[in-house]
Structure formats: C-alpha cells, structure tokens
Design brief:
Length: 119
C-alpha cells in the first residue's frame, strides 16, 4: 500500500541551514533518505521551495483567481514529502517517526487512494 509522508514545520523552526546544526540535520536527511531507498519502500520524495514561491489557483464564479502564496495561512507549512510503498500503516508510521524534523515539526501520514484502471 502506498502512503504519503507529508513533512510539516514552521518555516523558521529547526536549525538555520548554514549553521553547524543545520548541516548536521541535512546529513541526517541524506542518511534517512538512503535508508528508505535501501529498504525498497521509497517510491519518491522531494523537498519543496519556500511558501514565498507558491502560487494558488482557484476558479470562482467562472473566473480564474490566481494569488501568490500558499492556500492556507498557517504557522506550519508543507515542506516536502516522501511517497512510500509499505505493507501497512504501522510500517509507514515507523518511517515517519524516524524523520529528522520530527523533533520540531510533524509528519502527516496519509494513504494514497488507489483508483482501479478499467480495461
């Protein structure tokens, strides 16, 4: 079964990327990603650029409404994701608990809806 591991955190949470702590956390992410890939569970994953680069699209009353920034105004933002293929929710939760950001952010684990393809 496939699960999305959605990585959330406040944009100013965690160590600064150019600090020694930030460099250490970057290495933790690389190690985590390699372990996930080596296990065969990783389908894909990527960090997202900051919310200042986001664009939100809506259609209201037949009109396109395009705005800068993310859809929701929240303290925690979606920072990236991993798509994993694991036997069950327990295994997906195991991988979520090991993410380096878990100390200062959160990980939403959500099953991917599988839509059957008609013949």
């Amino acid at each position: 079964m496939k699960y999305m591991l959605l990585i959330y955190g406040a944009q100013d949470a965690g160590p600064a990327p150019d600090s020694p702590e930030g460099q250490a956390e970057f290495q933790e992410w690389m190690t985590y990603s390699q372990r996930l890939a080596d296990s065969g569970a990783m389908v894909s994953g990527a960090p997202l650029q900051e919310t200042t680069t986001a664009t939100t699209v809506r259609v209201r009353d037949g009109e396109d409404v395009v705005t800068d920034g993310p859809f929701a105004e929240t303290k925690e933002v979606l920072g990236g994701y991993f798509l994993v293929d694991v036997p069950d929710l327990d295994e997906a939760l195991k991988w979520a608990r090991q993410m380096p950001n878990i100390r200062w952010g959160s990980v939403e684990v959500r099953p991917v809806m599988e839509i059957p393809v008609e013949a």
